[in-house]
């Protein structure tokens, strides 16, 4: 019998919103069970003057939470699924993947323009190599600037740095109540999202059956299938959170469609494919799609991207 649930969370506004949402869902299913949230800083939160990719992309926003989980200081950790590496520490599992919000990216422009209406040479802020690569593939004239910080900080930098626009995930914008700022929804044919984008994941100890029983109620099967396919795709490509890889899985009537892209940092070279099959073959389809892109040169593109940007894949 559980005495209470201790949730570990990054202490950013968005991360705390997500953890409070998970806590609320758990209370709905277990009204008498106390749920407490512990906020903490991660490596990615503490280093704000270096591009994400140069820091090292394994567990950038998750490792401190996982250490607390393994030490028994918290019952579970709540993450944005896009931040979770495909390889988890021994003894930990993803117990629930919650229903996904719309996974795409959005444009927030200084003067409210649509993507296609931005002037030639428009200065666009993003912390994502994936967004940078795909947007340059679409519009080579864009000037991409790296911006770091939480969502509110990046929105503020739109004015502080006199940018023409910033690109962010819709899910975070909606959850923080900034939908009114959206200028344009960037179509998937221009920019595929990050693996897992838009979904909240709950990580726990593999041997904690009591907590697993509690959180199983918030696991969303369709979302889990789609994201397992995306994560299998990224794992086969040996890609981390900070490399220019995009993917989107969609499930309908037991059928999974998975799209994936790998692009270079300048947008001059990109390989993109899709694959479809039975939903129960999600991981296999992810691996197969990765193999298709590797045959088209995805491995060489990723190697060059890591070398050029100084990406550190170490721990």
Automatic annotation (TrEMBL):
Cellular component per GO, a single term: cytoplasm
All copies of domain Porphobilinogen deaminase N-terminal, residue ranges: 5-211
Positions where S-(dipyrrolylmethanemethyl)cysteine occurs in the chain: 241
Domain of life: Bacteria
Protein name per the record: Porphobilinogen deaminase
TM annotation in the entry: none
Summary of the function given for this chain in its UniProt record: Tetrapolymerization of the monopyrrole PBG into the hydroxymethylbilane pre-uroporphyrinogen in several discrete steps.
Self-association state and partner proteins as the record states: Monomer.
Family to which the UniProt record says this protein belongs: Belongs to the HMBS family.
EC number(s) per entry: 2.5.1.61
SUPFAM superfamilies cross-referenced by the UniProt entry: Periplasmic binding protein-like II, Porphobilinogen deaminase (hydroxymethylbilane synthase), C-terminal domain
Cofactor field: dipyrromethane
Co-factor remark: Binds 1 dipyrromethane group covalently.
Keyword field: Porphyrin biosynthesis, Transferase
First-level EC class: transferase
